[in-house]
Amino acid sequence: MSTDNRDMLEILQAELDFIEQGGYGRSVRTPWKAKSVFQDSLSCINYAEPEKVHPCEQCHLIDFVPGGKRAEEVPCHFISLSESGDTIEQLETAVDQRTLEKMLKSWLRARIKEIEAERAGIQTAALAS
Fold it and tell me: Global pTM?
């Protein structure tokens, strides 16, 4: 369970913005080095840390990782992005970067919509009380 004190909705929206602005494109400084989905963005609780300072279990994204994959080295890469169960781990080697990002954006939009709907329902229920 996450102990990340950041707001989940803000994290997912920032990740979507990051991707839409080309965040996972190759760096000018290190064009030979591919960027890692989630790990190379502010979504990662360990972003910009030379070593993994915080355990992944403390990150909000862990809530989307299946229980059996939470002990993996990069558990967020086992988040299912599609109904067929495609994960980042699988897609990194099976499809091009553009396709991976398209699937990730779709997943992010769906999660954002779910959270917004849930929060709107909670607010509506609170107002009705």
Answer: 0.83
Bigger pLDDT: 24 vs 10? 10
Task: Give domain status of residue 1, yes or no.
Answer: no
In this structure, is residue 43 part of a structural domain? yes
Helix (H/G/I), strand (E/B), else coil: 45: coil
Residue 105 belongs to some domain of the structure: yes
- Region label for 22, one of left (φ > 0), alpha (ψ between -120 and 50) or beta (otherwise): left
Each residue's pLDDT tens digit, 58-86: 999 999 999 999 999 999 999 999 999 99
> Does residue 54 form part of some domain?
yes
How high does pLDDT run on average in the chain? 87
d(CA 67, CA 51): 24
> Could you tell me which residues come within 8 angstroms of residue 78 by beta carbon, excluding any fewer than 6 positions away?
65, 66, 69, 72, 87, 88, 89
Q: Are 104 and 37 in contact (CB under 8 A)?
A: yes
Q: Are 80 and 54 within 8 A, CB to CB?
A: no
Q: What is the number of structural domains in the chain?
A: 1
Domain, as residue range, for 65: 8-128
